[in-house]
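Below: protein 1.
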Amino acid sequence: MLIHPLPRRDTAPSTATLSIQQRLRQALPLVFGCKDYQVEQTLLAHIDQILRESGVERTFLRLCRERFEARAQEARDDGRRAQSGGGALDRHLYHSLCALRCTVLKTLIGAGYRETSRQLAHSPLYRWFCALEDFDAVRVPAKSTLRDYAHWLPASEMRRVLDSLTEAVADHARARRIGLESELDMTVTWVDSTCLPAHIHFPTDWVLMRDGVRTLIKSILTIRRHGLRRRIPEPEDFLARINALAMGMAAAARRAGGQSPRKHILRSMKRISKVVEEHGRRYRDALDTHWAETDLTRPEAEVILRRIDNVLHQMPEARRQAHERIIGGRQVPNADKILSLYEGDVHVVVRRKAGAEVEFGNSLLLAESGDGFILDHELRRGASPGDARWLLERYAHIRQASGERLCGMVGDRGFDSAATRRLLEAEDVYDGLCPRDPARLAARVRDDEVFCLAMRRRAQTEGRIAILKNVFLGGVPRAKGFTNRQLQVAWAVLTHNLWLTARLPWARRRTPALAA
């Protein structure tokens, strides 16, 4: 049997530390003949060691306990029955441990909730890593439970979990305990920004009206299916008409002289959207008033009401936007555009790169150490203020994450400005930002050998961004809403740093051989 620590309620509940009891885990079977399995087993065993010895697991469980006790106290204050006592707390902390490990595993293997549940049922190695009960019967979390696990803590508290790992790898004694030969060098930081794309289709103006009609009609069909009906033509006919018009709009755009037919089709789409909007408002009011006549509970009715309200609120502006661009022939400022009816915090991010002139999503800033460890990150809800100003805002966080040992800052020309140069000079930090001025850039390349080495290393930061986005975030995060995307990024950064830290001993042992 293998021993694994599992949380237990403190004898003194007021203490801040979390006592640990030992829990038995099944020994892993011996597997021969598959090198990939042995590599994965070694990797997961090292990540398991890092979680336990770095303080990440302890910090996560402490935060979960504080939230559990706060909710219990809030319920008692409101006169509601609250789950309390050692048994309830022990169950919550066990599920908290599973939440941490299952979500790290899910992010590491890049699978969805359903596939992760299936993999856990198949693999003793994955169940061992996630500390799942595996004695008399195999018990694994279902996909809905895994989704709850992924939202166990908010992004603000996940930041504290990330900080605990950063502090561990920067401390010599703790770094040795997690398998590193020495602490990681945090003195030089490479920064870069990117666009994290949202899971939306290309924001064509007239498609917004089709989306709104489809959502309203499907909501109406749901309400009717649950027993609440009002006079309306066949709802499916509206779907057929709006889809036919959408196909006609797309076909007209490919024909010469198609501007006039496009205007005619858009006027028809506007008429249908107004009619469906009125039907949607009537059904919305009927459901809000007479929901008790259906077989829906009030929370279930609230879900449908929010969905309808979201579309009703934006449909007039979506029609105006399409009218301005197609009939009026006028541009709509990016700040005023509706890019999606369902993702309100998405922005037009101008990249001016090959294959990506513009992208639609949220700006993401990353700061990494020389070893590739991500020290700091921020997914921005609002539009990016520009790389230079963004760096000024995040500088204090980056310096704190480095343990106040920051000696150099490297980035591309977007981060260079008079303000950033003054800040780095005042902080006595080496300015490795690529100058915007070609003359200054040529002078630095000619006279500063350290700058040339830093610029050569900066290409690896592009690769780090690609790894985080394409491997740990799956390319386009499927989380809906900015808050959920922000949380998914936090889990991706945590898993990336665990993965990187677990592999560093291998990488450092292989470096001399590769160099030779």
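Below: protein 2.
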Amino acid sequence: MTVKATVVGVWIFMLWRGLGGGAVQDAGLPERYRKWLEQEVIYIIAPVEREVFLQLRTDRERERFIEAFWNHRDPTPGDNDNEFRRQHYQRIAYADRYYGRNVPKPGWMTDRGRIYIMLGEPRDIQRFEGMSQVYPTEVWFYQGMTDLGLPPAFNLVFFQDGAVGDYRIYSPLADGPQALMTTYTGDPVDYLAAYETLRELVPDLSEVSLSLLPGESSARLGRPSLSSDLLINKIESTPQRAVKEQYARKFLEYKDIVEVEYSANYIENDALVKVVRDPSGFYFVHYAIEPERLSVNAHNDRYYTTLILNGTVTDEKKGTMIHQFEKTIPLQFDGEQIRQISHRPISLRDMFPLIPGKYRLSVLIKNEVSKEFTSLERTLFIPSGEEELQMTSLLLGFGMEEDVPEKNRLRPFQAGRYRPHFQANRVFTRADDLVLTFQVTCLDRSVRDRAEIRYAISKEGEEFLGFSRRLADYVDLPDIAESLSLKDFPPAHYRIRAALWYEGQEILAETEEFDVTFAARLPRPWVYSKLLVGTGHPDYAYVIGLQLHSQGRLDQACAQLSKAHAADPSNLGYASALARTYLALQDYRPIPPLLAPFMEGSPTLPYDMYITLGSAWLHLGDPSRAKGVFEQGILNHGVNTVMLNSLGECCLLLNQWDDARAAWERSLEINAQQPAVRKRLDLLKEKRSGLTQRDESTLWASGT
């Protein structure tokens, strides 16, 4: 294949991709969204954005994405006018009006229309028309688009091939000067000869026939400029390169959580997640998120914002939610603090306990001031065998303090007395000491006395440094800390490996990567974290109990929640969670003593407490008490199908058939798609009308 044919083939492929390539995937789109995707934004939508849009399933999701799409491109998001969107549709209208004349397709589909929509009006247009020697040709001159990654100045040429049809874009390499002339009879591959002929006929046009870049020496070299065709290809992707595509991926992932005003404003972050075993036996997930920027509002030399943090932990195999948390982080700074922080990243750090298993962690942070959001996603593995020898992942820091938190308090990323100073991106200077901390847990005496840790550091894939330490030399086991100077480390990418060796065999190993930079100093993060209560606090038994319940390990959940309740019987959350677990175990007798004290005085309690207590009384054979609980729940929380259906069962058992019928009829008004309730109501009506001899026991047996 010739060079000319190759360039033409690439160009045709680009046009196919832009003008309907992959359209089969759009078959299920409603017409209005197909038009938006394949006409209105076809030249400016990035491949990732298109991919995400095609995965959306409802019109509401599509409308939210379209709003996020334009918001992401809005140059002045603080006002009500999206200048980019307005200008884009003005360009489409102009292209349709002026470039769709005398051609069998709309102007936006023409070459001139496409370029006009992407780049806007050129600085100058030079037209060569009404000449017998050359086909009608236009030379568009652009300048001042370096912010889009384009040259400071360049030309684009469009010509009417054969003097008929639409103007198409000219390629010096694929077309050559000979394509612009009407009567050229020379060698079709002799570009220099064609250039010389064109220069004699139309000197100004010949200047752009071999190169679209002013001042380039291609004409002197006698061959077309390859950089000109690279320029054309670059122009095609210019609108897409201006997009931070990550926002679209995050829109898809968080579309059911993030409000539309946030959805276009995803910001990148550096993040770190480590799992550390506490002396109590609990495993804690420690996480740090460092957003690329922190936007604040100012008032009277005070600077403030509020961050909303939402986290979920999902069982990777079953997909069930195991743990969920939400925190509000109000931040305030004075003038001096904001000056310091403006040159440093902020590191948000926290920790939580987690039961053994394999999970997916997702943390979402929203800035209420700037309407920006960022997120963290990681896979977590919490080991299960308490007596099995284990090594935690490596945490790399640029310094370390040795202290012990206040009695019965926990600090994120602290293990024992070691508190490393770290940055999530793991970049160091040669002036730093590399501090390495990790744990080797469940050690028996033999391993402790006879094992060693071997360290191996490689630089860009090649061995750089190695050393070893006897395990017994670490006096704070299972916590291990190692420090080494980086002054002899050339700037490069490194990999460090720590391996536990015992009786000549490698038993466990962990690796981590880091970079040493040329910079003499780095801005280190400003840290936001709080001390947490110690593991003796009943909150941890409560959290672990809820996680066990979510996994269906009800007996273990009951044991943990009983421990929390025993420590603080007045805590409504502890009592309610324990009661729900007893209900799931179908052990109803302990539930009334647990919840009844909280019902005294008829306070407004959480909705689920009325369901749990009422269901317990119902199963214990006391429908009268159950009815009173459900009625109180309806009084405090309003009607809903669960309450009404349960109330109907109570009334049925109390032979209050009219009340049962009224409850079920109201439930069906709320949700008609309840076949079991409708069947029960029909049976009740038959009984009341005397059409059948079914007794109350038959009615009860037919229920849900």
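Confidence is low (pLDDT under 50) at residues 1-24, 696-704.
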